[in-house]
Amino acid sequence: MSVRLSLSYYKLPDHLIPIVLFALATGLRMSNITGLLWENVDIKNRHAWVNIGSGKVKTKGIGIPLNSVALYVLENLQGKHPTNVFTYKGNPIKRANSKAWRNARKRAGLSHLRFHDLRHVWASRHSMNGTHPHALQDLGAWSKADTVRRYAHLSSRHLLLASENALSESVTNLTQRVLQ
Fold first, then answer.
1. 76/153: higher pLDDT
2. What DSSP designation does 155 have?
3. Which range (9-23, 68-82, 147-161) has the least confidence?
4. Angle at 72 between CA 71 and CA 74, to 5 degrees
5. Contacts with 11 (C-beta within 8 Å, 6 or more apart), sequence order
6. What is the Cα–Cα distance from 64 to 141, expressed in whole angstroms?
7. Which comes out higher in pLDDT, residue 141 or 71?
8. Domain extents for the chain?
9. Active centre residues (catalytic)
10. Which of 8, 20, 135, 172 is such that its CA lies 20 to 30 A from the CA of 72?
11. How far is CA 136 from CA 7, 107, 118, 127, 141, in A?
12. In this predicted model, which residue has the larger pLDDT, 111 or 178?
């Protein structure tokens, strides 16, 4: 599945753009994103901790490394609210799956897209860009390795390029001899 830039940049209301970018950058679930508090963000050390007890993470806090996009989003939101990271008109956002989200999906021609699908996009991009499965498992906070395969999907183009990996120099040379 591909999330077109039109959804995140041109069709989304301004208050949802940072949430979608943060989701695509971190792979966090909606409840972990909307529940993120400034006290759990360390911009200097590029790390954040999802709220203990929010979303599926109920027993322990999870540390999230902040890549350049996640850091950019947080730096641009800093100072807008004293406690909550993601807000709308000064109030904490409780759910990103709002009427504004649903309308933006419809305008972008992606009415089937769920907010949670952004987590699948995030995992798929990691996988296609070579992130080791163990690292992806830790980044996604999945307790089982099987879950990585459920979330990370390779595109047809990526599989085509990967199929070329089977062609060693000897296979290529043999093919050239046969075709001559």
1. 76
2. -
3. 147-161
4. 65
5. 104, 105, 107, 108
6. 9
7. 71
8. 5-160
9. 29, 56, 116, 119, 142, 151
10. 135
11. 25, 32, 15, 8, 8
12. 111
